[in-house]
Amino acid sequence: MHTVSVVFGSKAAYESFMSGTLGPAIAELGDKAFPNPPSVSTFEVHRELHS
User: Fold this and answer.
1) Are 20 and 26 in contact (CB under 8 A)?
2) Residue 26: how many CB atoms within 10 A of its CB?
3) Which pTM was predicted?
4) How far apart are CA 26 and CA 32, in angstroms?
5) What is the DSSP string of the chain?
6) What tens digit of pLDDT does each residue of 1-51 get?
């Protein structure tokens, strides 16, 4: 099992990536993409710290 973490600036940016980039790529792969749908977890960031 692999874990991929990605941070988007907004929910709209995430949805745009999923529908415009990742979704079509997965659809193109068909049965070769994933044996089961991936688990997706979302979290809101309330505070960002920059150094």
Assistant:
1) no
2) 15
3) 0.65
4) 9
5) --------SSHHHHHHHIIIIIHHHHHHHGGGS-SSPPP------------
6) 678 888 888 889 999 999 999 889 888 988 887 777 778 888 888 888 888
